[in-house]
Design goal:
With about 750 residues, the chain is an alpha/beta fold. The chain is built from 23 helices and 27 strands. The strands form seven sheets. A six-stranded mixed beta sheet has the order 11-16-15-14-12-13, with helices on both faces. The longest helix has 17 residues. Bound molecules: alpha-D-glucopyranose (GLC).
């Protein structure tokens, strides 16, 4: 439909119709026969509101959505099509590794392909919009949704956010088998006080602009059709009513012209925050802030028309919001094709296709981070990959588990996943493998909390909780297997329900029931590889100390078991790098590589001086740093060479390069990382910042030059007045394989000669 026609349509709509386009109904109001049943009697919505709402969230399926669309358009006075939205965060049915694991691939191109595959499965299922990517920067492992971010770095998050937007939308969301993206949660949701979900965010504008806004902006520059407001207050003002954040920063500064949707009931929650007296005020503040759609409540539906009639808001304000919603529908071609790509036959063909499974397996392999791989004294060989002929005991609650997807994989099904046991039976000779569950997944008290908080219907086997007698039997079998085997692969970690939305934890350890098993097994057989499943960085001190090898596999998704066996057997050489620091202990949080020096920085890790910015009882540095990850081969990175020592005048840039050599015994992939520090500036600058990276694959003995162009633009930051600038002076530069670097090399940005 042309813009002119769209405007004519808008002008022909009543005020009530326009308001109803700003209402989003939960899919629970529609039963599987696609009729609106969801307890209308106790519904918050009137019959008209239900039948005229502009969009629905939370249901999928080509047949169901077609039925809903047909009925809806028939009843609608202008036969305007519905938008169908869903949280497709890391896959619809083929579940890819959770987003934090996607960050660990340091491979935006690969991540884009996973988003494209997710878009295909969603589009043929009738979905038009996904509530992803999440662009929230996170430095606090206690917060459950760290799993949904791509980590602690603005540069990496910016690349990953843009890659996902492009994967979902292609060049245009109206294209075949593409869906509209929604960058979320604007803004700074990832910095809740105390790591507690939905908590307040206090943040200087400087830090907001330097660290937290870049990834959202990157997603918007990549063309995201929607942005979602966050639950949190930012410096005392809830995002859903934050006029400065939404109108000044999002719409004016970032030039976002798309649809701004609230989070689930986040408009209503402004009352609970103490920012609005009542629903009417909440509706007014939200629409004035520019929030176009009220997700899951009837606050807009009940109050906007009356606010216009009373003159407290203008009808133009409603028109603007309604137009953006209609424009999105038009950009998806829904007026011409209200069912877009929804197709039952294609659903069967595309969902969980071999191609998508292969992509999920490849991505999971690339997301796995090898944290430790000790050499054995007697052989001089590293424990991994598993040496042929070894008998291996796979022990732990994650041996059998098919719950390898996050709680945001809401349409993912455990039965579709490949467990470690299934993969091992496929990949290894029968006579060489043993399996033992060993213990439950979580302590009884964790389980009780989850049952109480999350879902009363969760059974003890859902939660991996066993009675005492069973625990004893499981342990006995595990210890017998450990004693018999040459090698033990312990498959441990955090239950998938212990991360994700509302799953903040004050303790980031592996559940005690599993640690007790770990200790007993390590007394029986010291040749231990520990495979750690988690939705967040965990406190791995004891695991690291007593295991000879450690793999962080996150929540690896549908093909997780196969990917893990690919790495364990050496079919794949691990190359993942940490997108987030692993704290030494929870007391260290927030810990992140791009910290400020302070006036009394430690002079190296061994500095014992008392009067330093430090703890008395633990080190300052994390257990494992951002950007860290080992390989089965050894890469040697030469000292950095600079093409020149200064940038300035006619010399707008310089080149920094290293030679990278594969000095090991097998082909491998290294992520070479560029870090820069501004030594002194008008505001203090981080001790280092990631400014580039490059993944290279080298054969044994092969050497390759890796070069980065250093530009003035790379050195820009927000000065105290909020303006983006760069300042002349000295800089340090590193090119290394993690953020834990040695001495840097200095270069200069010369002062611009003002003529
Ligand atoms: C949730 C989440 C948001 C999600 C929305 C719809 O509460 O905060 O990320 O997209 O509701 O499910």
């Amino acid at each position: 439909m042309t813009e002119k026609k769209l405007r004519e349509l808008l002008n022909d709509m009543t005020l009530e119709e326009k308001v109803n386009q700003l209402v989003q109904i939960p899919g629970s109001y529609y039963d599987k026969n696609a009729s609106v049943t969801g307890g209308i009697e106790n519904s918050r919505f009137s019959e008209t509101q239900l039948n005229q709402a502009g969009s629905i969230l939370g249901i999928t399926g080509a047949k169901t959505l077609r039925q809903i669309q047909e009925t809806y358009m028939e009843n609608h006075p202008h036969h305007i099509p519905l938008l169908f939205m869903l949280d497709v965060i890391h896959g619809l049915r083929t579940i890819f590794p959770m987003p934090l694991a996607l960050g660990a691939t340091f491979d935006p191109n690969l991540v884009e392909l996973t988003a494209q595959a997710a878009a295909k499965e969603s589009a043929v299922s009738g979905i038009h919009v996904t509530f992803a990517p999440m662009a929230d920067l996170v430095r606090d492992a206690r917060w459950g949704r760290v799993m949904e971010s791509t980590g602690e770095d603005p540069y990496l998050n910016s690349l990953m956010t843009a890659a996902m937007v492009s994967g979902f939308q292609g060049n245009h969301p109206g294209e075949q088998e593409r869906i509209a993206a929604c960058v979320k949660h604007f803004a700074a949701y990832g910095k809740p006080e105390g790591g507690r979900e939905y908590s307040n965010v206090e943040l200087s504008e400087h830090a907001l602009r330097e660290f937290y806004l870049p990834a959202y902006e990157s997603g918007i520059r990549a063309g995201s059709e929607l942005v979602m407001a966050s639950f949190n207050t930012l410096n005392g003002i809830p995002s859903s009513g934050n006029h400065w954040l939404m109108q000044e920063v999002l719409r004016k500064e970032m030039g976002f012209g798309g649809v701004l949707i609230s989070d689930w009931a986040s408009i209503e929650e402004m009352i609970h925050h103490g920012f609005c007296q009542n629903e009417r005020e909440a509706a007014k503040k939200a629409i004035e802030a520019g929030v176009d759609i009220d997700m899951a409540t009837n606050i807009y539906a009940n109050h906007l028309a009356e606010l216009v009639e009373s003159g407290e808001i203008t009808e133009a304000c409603i028109d603007e919001a309604a137009y953006r919603v209609l424009r999105l529908k038009n950009r998806l071609d829904l007026f011409e094709n209200p069912f877009k790509d929804g197709d039952e036959d294609k659903e069967k063909e595309i969902i969980l296709s071999d191609e998508h499974r292969a992509l999920a397996r490849k991505t999971a392999r690339e997301s796995i981070v090898l944290l430790k791989n000790e050499k054995e004294v007697q052989t001089g060989k590293e424990l991994l990959p598993i040496h042929s002929g070894e008998t291996v005991a796979f022990i732990g609650p994650y041996v059998e588990s098919k719950g390898l997807h996050s709680t945001w994989a809401i349409k993912g099904r455990a039965e579709d996943a490949v467990s470690i046991r299934e993969a091992a039976k496929e990949a290894m000779a029968k006579e060489n493998v043993m399996f033992a569950c060993g213990c439950g997944m979580m302590n009884r008290d964790n389980g009780i909390i989850l049952k109480r908080h999350m879902d009363e219907t969760l059974t003890e086997s859902d939660l991996g909780i066993f009675d005492e007698q069973t625990e004893k039997q499981l342990e006995k079998e595990a210890l017998e297997a450990a004693a018999k085997a040459n090698l033990v692969v312990l498959c441990l970690g955090e239950h998938r329900l212990l991360s994700g939305e509302a799953a903040s934890r004050s303790d980031i350890g592996i559940p005690m029931v599993q640690m007790e098993l770990f200790r007993k097994v390590s007394e029986v057989n010291p040749r231990i590889v520990t495979v750690v499943f988690s939705g967040r960085p965990l406190d791995l001190r004891e695991i690291s100390e007593k295991s000879m090898a450690v793999l962080e596999v996150w929540l690896p998704g549908t093909e997780g078991g196969n990917a893990i066996l690919d790495v364990l057997t050496g079919a794949c050489n691990p190359s993942g790098k940490l997108p987030v620091s692993f704290p030494y202990s929870v007391g260290q949080i927030p810990v992140h590589y791009n910290e400020y020096a302070t006036g009394r920085p430690l002079k190296g890790k061994e500095d014992t001086a008392f009067y330093r910015s430090r703890y008395l009882d633990i080190p300052n540095h994390p257990l494992y740093p951002f950007g860290y990850g080992l390989s089965y081969t050894d890469f040697v990175i030469s000292p950095v060479e600079l093409s020149r020592k200064t940038i300035g005048g006619v010399q707008k840039s310089l080149k920094a390069s290293v030679m990278v050599r594969n000095a090991g015994s097998r082909k491998g992939t290294e992520t070479v990382q560029l870090y820069i520090r501004d030594i002194a500036a008008s505001v203090v600058r981080p001790v280092k910042e990631l400014k580039g990276f490059c993944k290279i694959t080298l054969d044994q003995g092969e050497e390759q030059k890796v070069e980065f162009e250093i530009t003035e633009e790379m050195l820009q930051f927000h000065a105290a007045d909020g303006k983006l600038t760069s300042e002349a002076g000295g800089y340090l530069l590193w090119i290394d394989n993690s953020s834990d670097t040695g001495a840097g090399i200095e270069f200069e940005l010369e002062r611009e000669e003002h003529v």
